[in-house]
Design a protein that fits this description.
The protein is α+β, with helices and mostly antiparallel strands. 52% of the residues lie in helices and 15% in strands. The chain contains twelve helices and nine strands. The strands form three sheets. A four-stranded antiparallel β-sheet has the order 2-3-7-6, with no helix packed on it. It has a three-stranded mixed β-sheet with strand order 1-4-5. Strand 2 and strand 3 form a beta hairpin. Helix 4 runs antiparallel to helix 9, helix 8 runs antiparallel to helix 9 and helix 9 runs antiparallel to helix 10. The structure holds flavin-adenine dinucleotide. The site of flavin-adenine dinucleotide (FAD) has 20 residues, from strand 1, strand 3 and helix 12.
Length: 386
């Protein structure tokens, strides 16, 4: 994309968020729902397909561009981005990277326009950090597969037109082997979507359990037209998604620092603005430093991803650092506001709860450490003379 076109999009999104989304954050929190018109406007701005390939109707953003956009999206309630997060991210990428030409033509243009929503159904009760414990099965039956099992915490399941469902097609395989991915129409008989999960934060972003009871799908729904590519497809989607989550954390930290600084200037104790107290300045300065470090790390990791230099460790490092960072920034933000920081209706209190999820989904912080250390040890082993 032409650089000036890209800058115009980022500017338009920033302006839209501050004009239309920020003023509705309390309403979204209270209703646990994002007003439909915000979704419609997001669709008009191309936000349902910014990361999808241009030949299928998306904007084809590079990773660096995605990260720049996510810095803006992170400045408000994560529920806004969650409307189109699965289309661009985990679910849409599985189709874009591994779908057959027919599957891409069938789904991607509709996902990019916002006409359809895709959901990514991987996690199960005993298959979260380690999907190899997956129990959902897809049994071949003539030209069909019959899926049985259940998934939990599935974002946008209740909005989904299509579910990217991961299931074991080889009952004898263990670990990451024998897992396949299917594009399942959400209205297929045998699918039940549970009620929205009641969460600590991120109200308006919906997740649910999904149950599959003898769900019969034709073999054409097998992603890529072949079995056993499910685990690879899932990991590629999740790894890329880590960069986006990292950048959302940076955006949220930016907003928290801004809110806390404004409060410190405006509020007094003993007649002195609290921002004049050096210990309060310390809280602000530490947060600003970590926010800027996270921003720089995201941009550098995104460039490494785009250039193919580092498509695994960089996203894990960025996600680990930025998700931990925004939780510390939110905690300091509450501290700067004192008692007000603990009150409902104050943005920093809400962000404090919203931020917690970033350390858990698309790989917990512990899993990021495992991924990072594995890469380090592999590099070290490669240097040991034979
Ligand atoms: C709101 C929300 C939305 C979500 N959306 C989706 C979605 O759209 N699609 C989807 O498929 N999933 C989704 N998830 C699931 C999410 O990705 C998982 O919750 C996450 O990967 C952690 O898995 P788990 O919950 O099973 O926890 P567990 O894996 O049981 O982890 C529990 C603890 O054990 C630690 N642990 C586990 N394994 C190891 C290890 N090998 N080494 C060290 N520590 C370890 C973890 O770090 C954690 O501290 C969502 C979750 C939430 C809460």
């Amino acid at each position: 994309m032409d650089a000036s076109d890209f800058e115009s999009i980022v500017e338009a999104v920033r302006e839209f968020i501050s004009r239309e989304v920020v003023p509705r954050e309390d309403e979204i929190e209270a209703e646990d729902a994002v007003p439909d018109f915000l979704s419609e406007e997001a669709a008009k701005m191309g936000l349902f397909g910014y990361a999808l390939p241009t030949e299928y109707g998306g904007l084809g953003f590079t990773m660096e561009e995605e990260v720049r956009l996510a810095f803006e999206l992170g400045r408000t309630t994560p529920s806004f981005r969650s409307l189109f997060g699965t289309n661009n991210g985990i679910a849409g990428q599985a189709i874009a990277n591994y779908g057959t030409e027919e599957q891409k033509r069938d789904y991607l243009p509709r996902l990019a326009s916002g006409e359809a929503v895709a959901s990514f159904a991987l996690t199960e009760a005993e298959a979260g950090s380690d999907p190899s414990g997956m129990r959902t099965r897809a049994r071949r039956d003539g030209g069909d597969y019959v899926i049985n099992g259940s998934k939990r915490f599935i974002t946008n399941a209740s909005r989904a037109t299509v579910l990217v469902v991961f299931a074991r097609t080889d009952p004898d395989a263990t670990g990451s082997k024998g897992i396949s991915a299917f594009l399942v129409d959400s209205t297929t008989p045998g699918i039940t979507i549970g009620p929205h999960d009641k969460k600590m934060g991120q109200q308006g972003a919906w997740s649910s359990e999904v149950f599959f009871d003898d769900v019969r799908v034709p073999e054409q729904t097998l992603i890529g037209g072949e079995e056993e590519i499910g685990y690879r497809a899932a990991m590629k989607s999740v790894t890329k998604g880590r960069m986006t989550i990292a950048a959302l954390c940076v955006g949220m930290a930016d907003r928290i620092v801004e809110e806390a600084s404004a409060y410190a200037v405006d509020n007094r104790q003993g007649g002195t603005p609290i921002g004049e107290f050096q210990l309060v300045q310390g809280l602000l300065a530490e947060s600003q430093t970590e926010y800027l470090a996270g921003r720089a790390l995201c941009l550098e990791s995104a460039r490494g991803y785009d250039e193919g230099r580092d498509m695994r460790q960089g996203p894990a490092v960025a996600k680990l650092f930025c998700s931990e960072m925004v939780n510390k920034v939110a905690d300091r933000g509450v501290q700067v506001l004192g008692g007000m920081g603990y009150m409902r209706g104050v943005p920093i209190e809400r962000f404090y709860r919203d931020a917690r999820l970033f350390r858990i989904y698309e790989g917990t912080s512990e899993i990021q450490k495992v991924v990072i250390a594995r890469q380090m040890l592999a590099a070290a082993r490669a240097k040991v003379p034979a």
